[in-house]
Structures are given as C-alpha cells and as structure tokens.
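Minimal example, chain plus zinc ion.
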Amino acid sequence: MTVYDSILGHKRQIEQLKRVRDGGRVAHAYLFYGPDGVGKELTAFAFTQALNCVGEEAPCGECEHCRKIQRGGHPDVRLVASEEELVARKLTQVEGRKVASRQIRREQLDELADLFRHRPYAGRWKVVLVVDADLMNENSQNRFLKTLEEPSPDSVIILLTSRPEALLPTVRSRCQALAFNSVPREDIVGYLNKEHGIEADAAEVFAAMAQGSLGRALALVEGEVLAVRNQVAEALSGMLDADLEDILGMAQTFGKSRPMALHALEIMEFWCRDLLLLGAGVNAARLVNLDCQTQLSQTAARVGTRSLVRWIEGIRQKRRAMDTNANPRMTMESLFLSMRSC
Ligand SMILES: [Zn+2]
C-alpha cells in the first residue's frame, strides 16, 4: 500500500511515474493537464514524495520525507500558486486592505532561483509544483522559460493546469506532458459511498453533477447540494402553475446571494437536462437526478421539449449574466417570468 493507492483513477499515469522513478529517467519538467479536481495535484504530490521517499515502497507516506512533503514543510519542495490561491489555502496573508493577486507574479518565480542554485538540502530531489500554471502571464512564462532551458541538476518542475492552451508553446514543449482525464462516475460513487458513508442514491447525484471531478463532488457534499436540489425540483415542477407571488418568492429564495444564484442555476440546468433526456426516451441511467425519476417524468410530460430547450437557453444566459455581476434576485425574477411564459 503506497500513497498512490489512495488516488482515484489515473492508473496509467501513475504506472508511468513509477517507471520514471524506478528507472532513474526523471525528466526535468512535467506538465500535468486535465480538468480541475480530477487529482493532478494529488498525483504530483505523491510523485514528489516518491522521488524523495526512503521507505521500502515509495511513496510510503510514513518516512520523514513523505510526512514533511505531506505537511508542507520539506526544505526541497516549493509550491508556487497565485496569491489568491495561497490565501485560500491559508499559506499566506495579504496586508491590510490589499487584494490578493490572481496571477502568479514574476517575483515569485525569481524567488526560486535560490532553490535552484543549491543541491537538495535534505532529500534527493528538489521539486517545484506550480499550481494553475496558466496564471503566469506571458512575461512570467518567458522568465520561467529560462529556468526550463537551463535545468538545475537534481530538480524537477511540475506544472499543473486545466488550460494547457494558455501556456506558451515554448514552455509546453520543454515539459513531458501527462494528460489527466475525468474520473469515471462509478468510481466517484464508490468513493463517496465507501469513504464518506454517503448512500448510493445521493452519491449518484453528487457524482453526476461533479462531471468527473472528485474535488467538485466533495465540494458538493459539503455544500448541502441536495437541499438546494430539492428546492429547485419543487420550483421547476410547479413552474407552469406559478403565479406572480410564487415567482417573486422563488426569486427571493434562489437570488438571496450571488453564490446561491450560481449554485441554483447550475442545479437547474442539470434538472432541465434530465427532463429533456427523459422526454427523448433516453436510458434513465444517464440521468443526474436518478433518485427523482417519478417527479422528473411528471414534469417532462407537462413541459414539452420545445419549452425545455428554451428553459435551458434561458438558464445558460442567466449564468453568463451572473458572471458579469448581474443582480442575483432580479436575474432570477426575469428567468422565472420567462420560464413560466414558455
Ligand atoms: Zn516515504
């Protein structure tokens, strides 16, 4: 049992990383790319542990190096991320009313120079993990390119990104790329069931909404998504009979804050997609809200495909509007009014 065994999916990528380490052919730079929340960073940390592990089976998770890397205190390992991300992880603070930068700044990369100049202090390899590497602007990427072009011995750089296209081709071409795909739905269901004791019905809903991202599934578990989902279900089931008072009430519920509105809109889109699939006679196993089939079938029979397509278009349009800071309650009001009149 190694740290790798705790990672969901990505068996092929992990096998490749094991061969790299065991065969001593470690590349100077890696690019792990794929959707957010699928396990790129977990795998990168496990690989970092494996490179420095002194246990019997690497990464053992038990030896001094594995533990220090896990805790974030290993002298040869650096995590680079935007200030905003570092604040979110409680790894740094911003002074006073200063707003945390959403970019990886050039100075952060310059600070690595010292690490690259020395031999590893404690372990075998110096490792730099760059989280959301696409947050380096062109200027910073060019600065980083120098580091990639003049590799320091005993060092490995791992760039992580969900947007590899935002990296300069010159940066990409100097890294060995590893693609990380979405985690299969049944794997996420099994994990939520086994590790978090979530019942199969609910786990199915979380997994379907997470669309292959375990990180997203875990966030949904924390976010009381089922309660909101049930409110959404009730609102949409009764939409055709809603009067103005009902609509204003719903707009108040779902538009009470920006995060709530975004959350509700996302869930509404899943619900409407299910209605559309049911209406088209698609196999029920493909539904997100598998546990609500009866309720879905009843609504699908009443609303009709053409209106549903308009509902979905309306919801997507409002999601975009929320991105540009539209007022959440007004946005919901106008959405529900247009849905009822479909
Ligand atoms: Zn170890």
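The longest helix spans residues 258-279. The mean pLDDT is 92.
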